Amino acid sequence: MNLIFFGAPGAGKGTQTKIVSREKGIPVISTGDIFRKTAASDTELGKKVAALINNGSFVPDEIVIEIVKVRLSENDCKNGFLLDGFPRTLVQGQVLDSWLESKSKKIDKVIFLDVSEKNVIDRLASRMVCRVCKREYNTVTMPPKKSGICDVCGGELFQREDDKEETIKHRLSVYRAQTQPLIEYYRKKGIVYTVDGNKSVPDISAQILSLL
Length: 212
Prior knowledge:
By secondary structure, the chain is α/β, with parallel strands linked by helices. It has helices at 13-24, 31-39, 44-54, 61-72, 90-102, 117-125, 165-178, 180-187, 201-211; strands spanning 2-6, 28-30, 81-84, 109-114, 127-130, 136-138, 157-158, 192-196.
């Protein structure tokens, strides 16, 4: 099963893809994780990607597409994959479909997590991440036992630059302009399934797993 998860930044795609991955035994391909790893590297590409991420901008199509093609060609993707954060633009979606077709594959379902803008801002502005193990917390809904310290490894918690409110609003405007047309593109193919992402994590998971 080849799946795409769509939704605004902070819609809960990362959380839900991990749950579905465990249930279905297929890997999550998160371009956000790939980009952050690249941004942390001491290379010219890393510096470029870091600047784009910190400004809330998206990485150019040509870079993203090549990274994803390489990842989807790995052995663990043979029986399916979950895409989180890709495609982001109509061009990326069309190139992905053409490339998959050349491999006699296709996207089976697109899960769209529909979340209000207020909830997105509230969630992201409250998110903290462990510097060591990368576990995520929310100071409102899922705070650590000790403020600023990871429950799992004791690492320091921090707020990512792209989770600050001004950057979040910019990310949302870019999302609306570039990514929402993709939902219509896949809707015309009859494979988009809309899920209410304003509900609790277990409720959202139950909705998704029933669709699959």
